[in-house]
Structure to design on (187 residues):
């Protein structure tokens, strides 16, 4: 890379170098076999009523059809009305495409072998910095208000730290009051 007249790297060059370093961190994270393996404290969680929840991490490409069908179904059951009420509207095929992009990772929670919740997340660049982007956090109704959502978010934060991501980023729909109260509660 060329330097300026004084032999210093220009601001533009510094920004490009920083972005390239961030991109390398994202690529490294995406090469992991199982990012959750390094976090043994997040493989299971016991709810206040004594139920054990197990958490596993998978690349989207490693999910079987049953899990994918359940992911699409839970997503739609939980969110379709909020999407319809938003400026985005609901588009089933584009949502399914987003959920199955090759860079998608999933945390999946089971309760006695029953699928009860998932988070779709990605290691990605966002406004020039390396982030863990939480695309979805979706729980079955019966699994809510037991601390499982908080457990997922803590796991995502630790996964982000472990791979040197700068932030955990997410988007919520304004009308989704429950989700907004939940995220506010977590600070
Ligand atoms: C939003 C969601 C993930 C929250 O998960 P959860 O397991 O029910 O939440 P938790 O039990 O971990 O709650 C964590 C904290 O948030 C608070 N909280 C959770 N849901 C809340 C609600 N609806 N209203 C007010 N506070 C709420 C809890 O009181 C708790 O506080 P505490 O730690 O002081 O006890 C879950 O309700 C869900 O899957 N909703 C449907 C899908 C959805 O909207 N996803 C978010 C899309 S962005």
């Amino acid at each position: 890379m060329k330097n300026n007249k004084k032999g210093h790297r220009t601001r533009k060059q510094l920004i490009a170098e920083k972005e390239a370093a961030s991109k390398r961190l994202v690529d490294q994270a995406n090469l992991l076999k199982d990012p959750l393996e390094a976090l043994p404290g997040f493989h299971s969680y016991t709810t206040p009523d004594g139920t054990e929840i197990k958490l596993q991490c998978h690349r989207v490409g490693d999910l079987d059809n049953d899990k994918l069908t359940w992911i699409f179904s839970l997503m739609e059951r939980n969110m379709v009305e909020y999407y319809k009420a938003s400026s985005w509207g609901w588009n089933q095929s584009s949502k399914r495409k987003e959920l199955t992009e090759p860079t998608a990772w999933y945390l999946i929670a089971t309760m006695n072998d029953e699928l009860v919740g998932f988070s779709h997340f990605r290691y990605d660049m966002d406004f020039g910095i390396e982030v863990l982007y939480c695309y979805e956090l979706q729980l079955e109704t019966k699994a809510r208000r037991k601390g499982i959502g908080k457990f997922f978010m803590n796991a995502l934060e630790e996964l982000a730290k472990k791979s040197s991501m700068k932030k955990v980023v997410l988007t919520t729909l304004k009308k989704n009051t429950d989700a907004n109260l939940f995220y506010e509660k977590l600070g």
Notes: The pocket of coenzyme A is lined by residues 78, 137-139, 144-150, 172, 176, 178-179, 181-182, 185 (CB under 6 Å). The chain has one domain: 11-185. The longest strand covers residues 114-126.
